[in-house]
Amino acid sequence: MDALAGDHRCLAPDHLGFGQSPKPPDADYRVVAHQRRFGETLDRLDLEPAIFVLHDFGTAIALPWMLAHPRRVRGVLLCNTFLWPAQGPLRWLFGFYSTAFGRWLYRVGNLSAKYLLPSAWGTAKPLDPELHAQYLAPFADRDSRYATAALPGELVGATLAEMEPQSSALGQWPVRAVWGMSDPFLGSRELDRWRQILPGLVVDTVALAGHFVAEEAPETVQRAVRALSARPNVEIQPH
């Protein structure tokens, strides 16, 4: 964002329960609630046709608003993201973490930021202790981790299964991908799936980057955003 802000308006929504946003223990942290809050936020913004950089759950959170406002979307950049339920061993693992005991364990152990994050990091940009501390800081105690503890259940829930048929709708806009190939969770298999869904998808792969490709290979992401913003804005007809 620092590199793009000189000639782009850059917005980074801070979802409820994450980053510096409030983390109420009784809030609704399901994907559908994130979708609603995201949509309400964008409805209040004076948003010109925008490029959406979608990472991890970002596609599931943003897509309903994008489909409802196709003319407000100029392009899409996919970064190690998905729109379907977890499969195989991951489905079993996150199914366990979606139980009451699993959610409690997730909160007490801070499993997402403390363990899953470094395991998904590549070697393009080492995750040194200072950088890791920035990711740990927003989740300093168990009562700040309700949002992260809610997401494993979403990986095996019905919301993503219902949304999966909508994935091809991304093809109505110019779309590219930047993919960290050392991501153990959303790696080459998921990228191949996007290529099948979106024929002709332009992809920049980063062999040594993991799941957090925007952090690990920011220059590649920046170039992809600039490539999308250089395209003329195409008038999208509403369905």
Could you walk me through the main structural features you see in this protein, from its secondary elements to its overall organization?
- The structure is a single chain.
- This protein has 239 residues and is of the alpha/beta class.
- Helices cover 44% and strands 11% of the residues.
- It contains eleven helices and four strands.
- It has helices at residues 31-44, 58-68, 88-97, 100-109, 111-119, 129-136, 146-155, 158-163, 188-197, 213-216, 218-229; strands at 50-56, 73-81, 175-180, 202-206.
- The protein has a four-stranded parallel sheet with strand order 1-2-3-4, with helices on both faces.
- Strand 3 (175-180), helix 9 and strand 4 (202-206) form a beta-alpha-beta unit.
- Helix 1 (31-44) crosses helix 2, helix 3 (88-97) packs across helix 7 (146-155) and helix 4 (100-109) packs across helix 7.
- The mean pLDDT is 93.
List keywords for this structure.
239 residues, alpha/beta, Rossmann fold, four-stranded parallel beta sheet, 11 helices, 4 strands, 44% helix, globular
| Mean pLDDT over the residues | 93
Distance between the termini: 32 Å
Tell me the series of helices and strands, N- to C-terminal: HEHEHHHHHHEHEHH
Could you say what the CATH topology is called? Answer: Rossmann fold
User: How much helical structure, as a percent, in the residues?
Assistant: 40-55%
Round the Cα radius of gyration to an integer and report it. Answer: 17 Å
- Largest sheet descriptor: 4 strands, parallel
Overall number of domains: 1
With strands numbered from the N-terminus, the spatial order across the biggest sheet is 1-2-3-4
The CATH architecture can be given as 3-Layer(aba) Sandwich
Look at the structure and name the CATH superfamily: Alpha/Beta hydrolase fold, catalytic domain
Uncertain stretches: none
Annotation field: number of helices: 11
Number of strands: 4
Using the alpha-carbon principal axes, give the shape. globular
**What's the level 1 CATH class?**
Alpha Beta
Structural class: alpha/beta
How big a fraction of the residues is strand? 5-15%
